[in-house]
Amino acid sequence: MRAQNGDQSFAHRCRVYYEDTDAGGIVYYVNYLKFMERARTERLRELGFAQSQLAGEDLLFVVHSSEARYYAPARLDDELLVSAEVIELNRVSLRFKQQVRRAADATLLCEGQFLVACVRPNSLKPRAIPETLRAAFAAVSGAGKQSKQEI
């Protein structure tokens, strides 16, 4: 399903700590991926699904592919707003569009897209996203038509 009118109101707040920065005091590029991972996890939690609970239900989400673009640096002590919007909902995968913005001035620092697959924890074989979870994502993303591409 392709999202039509995505809910862009979700944003996870986080702070840049010393451990997130390089020698120049700028956030090391790979840490933006960590911030976005946390936002996806918090998005699930906001919908009523904890990843620990899902693992107990023979379900695990894994990143299939990622793409990131960097625009401006975040620095030590910056407060960040990290969005996690579902833009595509398929039978066994979700595509997220994410942005990292500085909270103080809403400057776009980084954005990316992540294809996240639903798999069985023991075999890592694809499995269908449970209907309750699909319905929750569809409700907040305004999902519409089935996508032609599926992993």
What does this structure look like?
This protein has 151 residues and is α+β, with helices and mostly antiparallel strands. It has a single domain (11-141), classed as Thiol Ester Dehydrase, Chain A, CATH 3.10.129. Helix content is 23%, strand content 32%. Strands 1, 2, 3, 4, 5 and 6 form a 6-stranded antiparallel sheet that branches. The radius of gyration is 16 Å and the shape is elongated.
Task: Compose a concise summary of this entry.
The protein has helices spanning 29-46, 51-56, 131-141; strands spanning 11-15, 60-70, 79-83, 85-89, 93-102, 108-119.
Number of helical elements: 3
Radius of gyration using CA atoms only: 16 Å
Helix content estimate: 10-25%
Number of domains: 1
Level-2 CATH architecture:
Roll
CATH superfamily: Hotdog Thioesterase
Protein name: Tol-pal system-associated acyl-CoA thioesterase
Domain Thioesterase: 24-105
GO molecular function, one term: fatty acyl-CoA hydrolase activity
Organism: Pseudomonas veronii
Lay out the secondary structure:
Blueprint: E1 11-15, H1 29-46, H2 51-56, E2 60-70, E3 79-83, E4 85-89, E5 93-102, E6 108-119, H3 131-141
